């Protein structure tokens, strides 16, 4: 076999990479479709056609855009503190950012996955991965809030995640950085990588009824870097495909040392087989771990963080038929499965071609033991035996592929900054358009389902430079929408994005919008410090803890003035928004508070903890403009010295103000 | 005088306010200009015409939009932690969020002001106010970063801010909530408001050369609520106008109790007179205060927080000719000055008309002592003596007014949800358009300057409801752009916004874009832990502190592996991005870190402090996709037990990796 033809770079060097940006697309310029303005314009009062859920990358959050307008509809806080929404600041949401080693205020959210039923989006949940401190989140599309976060043990960077099976049976997580297994003594020299560092693939089950996640099992493999993954579907249902790099098992200067092999691997995992092994008791129970499972409850309006200590590990080397490697040129990034499930596309970011593997040929190869050897005890299928064919000279730096539902694939090329459309069966290139600049992921609505909506493709670009008015050294990342309804792809619109969108998915608005909750029903509020109405508003001291049962309604707080607070008290403002109208939040903030603010939606209770560190008068007020008399929605707290004899007194903000002494 | 005609509500009640939302604009529907799509479409590769700087409200940040596209170009972190950009997480930026009582991770940014020279925007800086913990920030428009934050003593909620004079001589800050003066014993009963609570107006000087702010003086007034303010210009240069409410001096249920007086006041302040009094030594030096002044330096790439203890206070009651009250119906919110400086528009949010005051008549009234009495020792000018005229039956709930530069004013109406255009001189109403829904501030580019660009008006709406695809109970706030170049205002586009935009300003792109910095020059880097190149990269232990001098360049870290770290060490990663190309940031994150991540721009050094709390192998990696080999840009830290004898060892990530032992 001649490896040379698969290899773009003999040896990657920093110097060469520095020249990437000179590889701007040339010639085609910014040519746009003649009626691009109309095609992307969504008139006032009209809705966008698609919800586009885009990862926020290093923001740690999830962005929701409308397509085709590119308008940012909402940023959903997931893994990072959000001062705007009080996420991670309120007592109720703090547990959501807990990990097995304390609160972590940030993460790097890379990929999103809409839940699926029968291989198509069902509009119920979005899953997202934390790439730094390994976790998976589930966002509920009735509330557009993060409902659950599950930490992953035995992992070092959860990049190959949260890809899901076609009925949302499992969400997976492949460790990007192999590390020593938890609880087995991690204090080892880094240059013992090959002996001590292991790669794990976590399979997280999802409850069909309520979406709850559990770590079902992990598969232990040799130490490599796992990059991306996709579930099989249709004919390949029951299998999962993971791309790997650093099969050199290097542990320093990976830029060079992990770019040496001409081929790395796609790892094919038979998860139905894994289930059989589990049933047969072939899993090893490991119980000296620490990871947490955080859940938010929409009725108590509170989160809990539960420490877990056990997982079940299946050993890929020992359990025959569980895993197979497929050679894939070179440092494969994306591994994508076509709508039928038959074709698996590996995008080697340093490769000069795109291999397309055939699921049926893989099965035949396994049956016929067409192996070229093994890696870490796992059989390596012969490249040619698994191959459907190769897309030749497609572009430079292929990264990801999505599908248009008309038999075509579109692949993004980072180095040559373009999108290339090709036919899945005959592998012929049909069209190419430049991106500005250096596209990473791309997204076709439904592009990973069995029924893609091949109307648009969006390129999520890594370099922005001159695409928008300059904003100093730091620029927003950018996206570009193309019309792909015809034979030729046509650029429509550039739009800037929050953080760094890696992957994104889009779904027809109809599948989501009618699920969307407008208010939390106040009669369903089970918060332990819920205040049903102003007549229940009160202040209670319990030792050094002071609980303020506080209500908000346009446009006053009850109570609005509180005296008798002492320096060093733990003051808990339990704010219940007793409104029941859509889009009528109230905010709560107090001067100098270390816990930010609360943004409390109708029917909800949220708690701000405040520890006054000095005497004086502290104003508080509503932070979300709520009515013509919003500016009047305020109160004062009087803080006296520790041990002061000022009694707890408060004014009830009714139309007939009264003072109550506790 | 018949007060009745000025009064919309005899007594505001919660019940009545609840019905506001039924006051949706009717009839006009969503009619848009025929070519709205073309008018708002900015083709790929083209620039927007205006930078629109919008306050983030309860996000605490500043948003930069392009107009007319409505695209969000950048969120600039100001008063709140920003996990996306490491703002408040890096050691360098932590001091920017310090206050006199410790770090405060959040605030409520209400208003923005572009710096002015000769009454027009000069494109140098944006000022912004913190409404919760009183502060003013200055954002530098070369870097689009927050350069300075000044805390304000003697204040309780800084709402009436950061309005500026026509040569940026002063930025002002009027306390929204009157409070006892600092350092004079604030532990007083709240119902002693009239005796003990004071209103202060802070005048902050701005250095012409570098923008540096200093608290020049404060004016002490009776306790009321200050709402908004505007400087005089042209003929009224040297004066400042502040709107007040709660002249009832109520301290509970302000919704009712501060809505009783038929007129409150606009306070006219002669700041040139204040300067004379200061020179004459009439200010009282107060030196038992605490407030901080935080500055960020673009060469050391670090911030400092300096504690201040002194201010000079001028007493408005004692110093004749300094302050005058002008009666203004009813609970005035906006107070806006026309391009000539002659006309001052007071928008009483509960008033059924709009009074327009005349600066020359105010001067005549003062000269002729046409007073109707005094309030707290300050003369009250007769309403009619100050009045140019009234706009009759303009709409319900007037809030703010901007000017189109063609002799017209446009006023926003919260309750009747509309914009109304009227002629400044004859006070005749010329046009009205609905807003969706409940507009707060409005903005015309240059609308508060002497030369407005009357092409667009943007309505920043408080209620969103059905304007965009629903996103659960919490919706983005929204803005609407109207074409005002013709006689009739025409709705063009709705766009969602970050946080809650209160005020916004827009400036022609030409005035800002060429100032924008592309990189930080590495030869100008004066950071104390700067690493000039990979040959200087190193790890140094000093007791329990470990300093990692770390460089980033596509696509590796130097060093990339570090051993010899011990549990409980203070590890400082001083990351220098040695790139010098535009738009080539690198990020830095390590598994489980409590200080988020770093986003390091070319030529910059930033520091992440990490205290490992357990033994093991911790991966770190670049968080901003930088090249085709970005995924290879990683390293490992080995953490051993406290007292371990593993020596400090590190790999230098050059093309020829070496290990160095310290």
Automatic annotation (TrEMBL), chains A, B:
The protein's predominant localisation is: other
Q: Which UniProt keywords apply?
A: Copper, Metal-binding, Oxidoreductase
Q: Which PANTHER family match?
A: CYTOCHROME C OXIDASE SUBUNIT II, NITROUS-OXIDE REDUCTASE
Q: Does the keyword Nucleotide-binding apply?
A: no
The record's section on NCBIfam families has: nitrous_NosZ_Gp
Q: Which organism is it from?
A: Sphingobacterium humi
Q: Does the keyword Cell wall biogenesis/degradation apply?
A: no
Q: Which GO terms describe its molecular function?
A: metal ion binding; nitrous-oxide reductase activity
Q: Which GO terms describe its cellular component?
A: cell envelope
The molecule here is called Sec-dependent nitrous-oxide reductase
Q: What is its EC number?
A: 1.7.2.4
Compartment(s): Cell envelope
**What's the domain of life for this entry?**
Bacteria
